[in-house]
Amino acid sequence: MSANTVTADDATFGQIVADSTPSLVDFWAEWCGPCKMMDRPLEELAAEKAGKLKVVKLNVDENQATAMQYGVMSIPTLIVFQDGQEKKRLVGARSKAQLEAELADFLR
Questions:
Q1: Residue 36 is inside which H or E element, if any?
Q2: At a CB cut-off of 8 Å and minimum separation 6, what does 36 contact?
Q3: Which of 37, 42, 71, 91 has the most other CB atoms within 10 Å of its CB?
Q4: 39-70: b or e for each residue (b if 16 or more CB lie within 10 Å)?
């Protein structure tokens, strides 16, 4: 994880995503190849959009309750939360350019 990303767990998740600043939560696992492909684009996005977008990492193997609560069935799953509410869901790996395009409404 980089200095620009936040690590969440079952205990801290609700508090982290309750903010009015959009949180992009990456539901991932250590063994997931496509999840590892997302590391660099997410870290770059976190650095470039600091203050506008919070990038949050949640390991689904270690935090199954949160993953189940939000119906995460495949990974990587990226969910944008704002004020504690799910606003957008993306399933599967994306390039940085694709992420920026799909998250444009939250990056203004």
A1: helix 33-37
A2: none
A3: 42
A4: bebbbbbbeebeeebbbbbbbbeebeebbeeb
Q: Which domain holds residue 23?
A: 5-103
The mean per-residue pLDDT over the stretch 88-93 comes to 97
Domains of the chain: total: 1
CATH number at residue 9: 3.40.30.10
Q: Is the peptide bond before 76 cis (omega within 30 degrees of 0)?
A: yes
Please, what is the Cα angle at 84 between 31 and 107, to 5 degrees?
A: 80
Q: Is residue 72 part of a domain?
A: yes
Q: Is 103 exposed, middle or buried (0-12, 13-18, 19+ CB in 10 A)?
A: buried
Could you give the percent of the chain with pLDDT greater than 70?
Answer: 98
Give me the active site residues, please.
32, 35
pLDDT single digits (tens) 34-63: 999 999 999 999 999 999 999 999 999 999
**pLDDT over 60 at 1, yes or no:** no
